[in-house]
Specification:
The structure is a single chain. The protein is built from 10 helices and 18 strands. It starts with 5 loop residues before the first strand and ends with a strand. α10 links the parallel β17 and β18.
């Protein structure tokens, strides 16, 4: 297949507001040994795009430091972790049989080779991502979804949001018949948690507010708690026997309020801090009840394999809230930051 020499891409030139996103004409990346070149069909936005652009991740011992996901960002950096597209070229030592395959790219950079490896970097942060017409990927991270009934837009929503959600569910050992509490349930990860926990056979109790409540219920929540009211009281009423697993992307005061609502041996899984990262709680609520607080960052290769199996069988139906052309990435990020939507925002290169 013939591939042009240059492409349009959107990259950040430093940390800052939407103004640091620039549309540029750049060389098409050349796949190295063991890599493929993917023509991007769709790329989904995530909160991590905003936080990487803002430098909002902090560093160990210095929470206010401007930093990317795992440290300093090498500018200029093409953003975008979530890519669905087609393989159009291969690097050395990659079989040509993968050419033309429809793929979803696992955006994680892992610390080792095994199925339980930890993500220590992310496409769009630690390496160039998919806000572009083309992106390279290690061949083992380009998962074949050629036969999936899902659209490219839907497939692009999966890697970060659904990968993070499935990682939380797996690390929290959520089982059929258990009660799961999902915070931030109308967001990308939150809606994925509702769908995946429901698919696992859990009873899903979701936190949301206002006009988004109906959409969260439609995604599969058995009960919705309105976070504008007394949250702890509503959770107690909806789950009088307590919560088995909290799947939390909000943190902040919710951790303090919610820990006493866990059942014996309950698990509180945290994968975000939308409500604040500086948390105080009564440690007796953990050790007296054999509870666990579990940190969860993205997914492992094994989790991603599970997710891609679900994608091939179209076992989840991701919600696409809006689509934009690549050149309007700044506008799309501003809409993401307003949090007025339900589902995922997708760019079309």
């Amino acid at each position: 297949m013939s591939v042009s020499q240059s492409m349009r891409a959107v990259r950040i030139t430093g940390h800052g507001g939407p103004e640091v996103l620039e549309v540029a004409e750049v060389p098409v990346p050349v796949p190295r040994t063991g890599e493929v070149l993917v023509q991007v069909g769709a790329v989904a936005l995530n909160n991590t795009d905003l936080w990487t652009r803002q430098g909002a991740y902090g560093r160990p011992g210095d929470p206010q430091a401007l930093s990317g996901w795992r440290g300093p960002v090498d500018f200029p950096r093409i953003q975008g972790a979530d890519v669905a597209g087609r393989v159009v070229a291969v690097g050395p030592r990659v079989a040509e049989s993968v050419l033309g395959r429809r793929v979803v790219v696992d955006p994680a950079l892992y610390d080792s080779e095994g199925p339980d490896a930890h993500p220590v970097g992310l496409m769009g942060s630690e390496r160039d991502g998919g806000y572009a017409e083309y992106v390279t990927s290690p061949v083992e991270r380009a998962h074949d979804v050629t036969g999936s009934a899902l659209t490219d837009d839907q497939l692009a929503t999966l890697p970060t949001a659904y990968g993070t959600a499935l990682g939380m569910i797996e690390r929290g050992r959520l089982r059929q018949g258990e009660t799961a509490l999902v915070s931030g349930a109308s967001g990308g990860v939150g809606l994925a948690l509702v769908q995946l926990a429901r698919a696992r056979g859990a009873r899903v109790l979701a936190l949301s507010s206002g006009p988004k409540i109906d959409a969260v219920r439609a995604a599969g929540a058995h009960a919705v708690v309105d976070r504008s009211g007394n949250v702890a009281e509503q959770i107690r009423a909806a789950a009088p026997d307590g919560v088995d697993v909290a799947l939390d992307v909000v943190a902040g005061e919710l951790v303090q309020e919610g820990l006493p609502l866990l059942r014996e041996g309950g698990r509180w899984v945290v994968a975000g801090a939308l409500g604040g990262y500086d948390v105080a709680f009564d440690v007796r609520r953990i050790y007296l009840h054999n509870a666990q607080v579990i940190g969860s960052s993205m997914h492992t290769p094994a989790h991603f394999d599970l997710l891609m199996g679900m994608a091939r069988r179209a076992e989840v139906q991701p919600v696409v809230a809006a689509t934009y052309p690549l050149e309007q990435a700044a506008r799309a990020q501003e809409e993401l930051a307003r949090r007025g939507h339900v589902g995922k925002i997708v760019l079309h290169p």
